[in-house]
Design goal:
five-stranded mixed beta sheet; Conserved hypothetical protein from pyrococcus furiosus pfu- 392566-001, ParB domain; 2 domains; 48% helix
Length: 159
């Protein structure tokens, strides 16, 4: 799991009933025990607000006894990469032929995650069309080298 520390507006943070204790939450709470000033929060996807997961006493103190507008918070990074991996593994189960495809390099996964975030039209494609689009990111190295060779051919005078 990866975490980021960000200053968040206190107005966007909500206190709620403590969520069910999971291993992920235990890890998050252990991380904030070392810091007196951090709040552990989870982002709500629906409204963009944050819910306090650890450090509720600190949150109450900041709300009631200080005039701070922003507070440092420990946020678990988004799960978009995990969602892409889960989707890909489901695709592998459904189409066993796909298991022979090359594995994506880290740069390829980065490209795929960015693409999925920026392109909402992707979900309208059929599964095979989605696979064809994603193969470009998976074959990242070959795609880039082919594009570089094509540019080289274009720029060099024909002999």
């Amino acid at each position: 799991m990866k975490y980021t520390v960000e200053y968040l507006p206190l107005a966007k943070i909500k206190a709620a009933q403590p969520p069910a204790m999971t291993e992920r939450l235990r890890t998050l709470r252990r991380l904030i025990w070392d810091s007196v000033h951090l709040l552990a929060v989870r982002k709500n996807k629906k409204d963009g607000s944050y819910t306090v997961v650890g450090g509720l006493e600190r949150y109450e103190h900041l709300r009631n006894h200080t005039s701070k507008k922003k507070v440092p918070c420990l946020i678990e990074q988004s799960k978009s990469s995990m969602e892409a991996k889960v989707w890909f593994h489901r695709l592998l189960e459904r189409y066993p032929v796909i298991a022979d495809l090359p594995r994506a390099e880290p740069a390829g996964w980065f490209i795929i995650r960015k693409f999925l975030k920026r392109e909402p039209r992707f979900v309208r494609l059929s599964r095979m069309q989605q696979l064809r689009v994603l193969l470009i990111g998976i074959r990242y190295k070959k795609t880039v080298t082919a594009a570089m060779k094509a540019k080289l051919e274009e720029l060099l005078p024909k002999s």
